[in-house]
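Input structure tokens:
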């Protein structure tokens, strides 16, 4: 496939965060772009407002006629999350089109560019967005394909005027193996996506293979303690090749010092909260230093960094209520989010609403979820969000509740959760999950405000 030949792009699963980024990219190049997704969301509405039509009926009759005949000017992209029996997917297959996964297209786009790829079972979205913001804010510039909506730029794709591209490298379905980066960051390698990998060792092998694909002369940056034999290590409050120290909270803001073998930066104010985000920042600083961004510019950029939508995002912060929303959907992510909230607000009672994501993940990590959620003061758990999966007999949210030691816990429907928040007015509320819990954020905010 030659990108320069492409004039029309159809995306099957266009509403996904990675897919929508590609849709915006190809429209930016001047291509005619449209696509299909299962349900309407705020993101698909934004695409529509930007001039990218999206259909929600899995029927070939809604595919524009100009997309129905294979040629070298038409590109069809699909996400592995699309069911194999999708009518639109099978139309393009049967019509003789060569279909490309999102990850393959990202690999083609980044080929020939200086690529900074950020991988990890968690931390990759915030870290890649930090790197991109530092490069933009410092004037170094870059293009970027991000796994979330940057709060600084209100988009998931950035366009630069140089040869540097920052990409989030997704381990799901081994997607990141299409990339050959110049700088690779690996933030974490905890067990996840066992529906794909089977066990933790196979996931670890995949990360090692990703690390081996770094271009000659390239650099691997990874968190200290990961089972990787080479690379530059980073850590928080622990000696490593690069590390953060003197971590403190002043007036609700996190501050820290950075040090590696050559550079010291003191009194860095991080524009977002969370100990885990200081760890992400250390990795982003190291990558930026490799790209010759000055220490002063890095410090300034981190102070103005606003984070990523649904990554420790403040929804409400007033005298009566603090409401934080986070994408955490793995036990380790939940622990990081909960501990950060409790560190910031040690004297407040923490009420948490959690929506488990995927039957397989709930089954595989039920004990880890129970342990993480036992850290809160009050828990409301929702039913499992199935995403691409069919139900698994005996796997449900009650499995988690049964294993928890916490007494103040209950399973509620979404509307019941909103009513409960309206009635009980929790002083400190945290919503967590990767499903459609984001659609509860505004109703919950209104419930807290008695709107």
């Amino acid at each position: 496939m030659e990108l320069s030949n492409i004039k029309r792009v159809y995306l099957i699963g266009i509403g996904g965060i990675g897919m929508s980024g590609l849709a915006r990219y190809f429209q930016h190049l001047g291509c005619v772009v449209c696509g299909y997704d299962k349900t309407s969301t705020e993101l698909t509405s934004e695409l529509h407002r930007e001039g990218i039509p999206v259909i929600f009926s899995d029927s070939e009759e809604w595919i524009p006629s100009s997309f129905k005949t294979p040629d070298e000017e038409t590109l069809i992209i699909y996400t592995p999350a699309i069911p194999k029996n999708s009518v639109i997917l099978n139309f393009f297959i049967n019509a003789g089109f060569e279909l490309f996964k999102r990850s393959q297209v990202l690999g083609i786009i980044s080929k020939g560019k200086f690529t900074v790829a950020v991988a990890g079972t968690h931390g990759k979205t915030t870290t890649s967005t930090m790197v991109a913001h530092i490069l933009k804010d410092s004037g170094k510039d870059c293009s970027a394909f991000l796994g979330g909506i940057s709060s600084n730029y209100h988009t998931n794709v950035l366009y630069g005027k140089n040869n540097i591209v920052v990409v989030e490298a997704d381990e799901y379905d081994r997607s990141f193996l299409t990339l050959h980066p110049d700088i690779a960051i690996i933030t974490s390698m905890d067990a996840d996506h066992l529906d794909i990998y089977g066990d933790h060792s196979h996931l670890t092998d995949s990360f090692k293979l990703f690390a081996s694909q770094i271009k000659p002369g390239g650099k691997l940056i990874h968190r200290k303690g990961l089972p990787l034999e080479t690379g530059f290590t980073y850590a928080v409050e622990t000696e490593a090749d690069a590390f953060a120290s003197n971590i403190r909270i002043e007036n609700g803001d996190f501050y820290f010092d950075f040090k590696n073998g050559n550079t010291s930066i003191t009194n860095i104010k991080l524009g977002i909260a969370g100990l885990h985000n200081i760890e992400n920042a250390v990795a982003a600083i190291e990558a930026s230093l490799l790209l010759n961004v000055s220490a002063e510019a890095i410090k300034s950029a981190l102070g103005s960094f606003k984070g990523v939508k649904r990554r420790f995002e403040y929804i409400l912060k007033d005298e009566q209520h603090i409401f934080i929303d986070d994408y955490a959907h793995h036990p380790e992510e939940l622990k990081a989010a909960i501990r950060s909230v409790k560190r910031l607000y040690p004297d407040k009672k923490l009420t948490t609403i959690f929506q488990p994501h995927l039957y397989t993940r709930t089954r595989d990590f039920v004990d880890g979820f129970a342990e993480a959620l036992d850290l809160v003061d009050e828990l409301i758990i929702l039913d499992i969000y199935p995403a691409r999966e069919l139900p698994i007999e005996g796997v449900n949210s009650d499995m988690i509740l049964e294993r928890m030691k916490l007494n103040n816990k209950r399973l509620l429907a979404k509307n019941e959760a909103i009513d409960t928040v309206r009635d009980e007015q929790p002083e400190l509320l945290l919503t967590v999950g990767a499903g459609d819990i984001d659609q509860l954020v505004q109703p919950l905010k209104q419930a807290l405000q008695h709107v």
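Residues 313-448 form a domain with the Protein-Tyrosine Phosphatase; Chain A fold (CATH 3.90.190.20). The chain has a mean pLDDT of 94.
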